Amino acid sequence: MTSPFDTRDLARIAVFAALIVALGLIGPIPVPGLVPITAQTLGVMLAGLVLGARRGAAAVAVVILLAAIGLPVLSGGRGGLGVFFGPTVGYLLGWLSGVVIAGLIAHSGRRTWWRFALGAVVGGILGVYALGIPLQALITGIPLGQTAMTSVAFLPGDLIKAAAATVVATALLRAYPAAFAPLRNRAVPRSAPAAA
Prior knowledge:
Layout: H1 7-23, H2 40-68, H3 89-106, H4 113-140, H5 144-150, H6 155-175
Helix pairs in contact: 1-2, 2-3, 2-4, 2-6, 3-4, 4-5, 4-6
């Protein structure tokens, strides 16, 4: 059985999984409510913008798997199955939907700063909130509307992270475009003859 990823893909996935974990070393910032602000969503946004949907999702899945087996890879040194039963689980699982949406938007055509910004906001913020808020409300028993209102406290920080992800991805694209996963649908198949 062959892997869907080549060696360069695996290296990129490992680097971005490590980046997400490293951003967790910056401790959580407590806000009113039960879910703290963390820097790890910046890594999730960057994984989608740089790696695209499939590879970005693989990087996030690695981090989630490491957390599930008990490694302290989440902000504040958290890990273990208990994380998946707490109020933050929806945001953690929302990383997967967020990275996929960010990657799809960022890689939907020519890579530009505005595609990166749109991907970071729609995927990295809205895509994560779409799962995080309802699951937080379900687990805590707080009404959905009230939970959504308390999540407004996250928006300024998340918008700053989206802006930072846009700047970093745009600068990286100019300085080192090889870091980005290739646009497969635009690439010429290896077996195709060269154009005359």
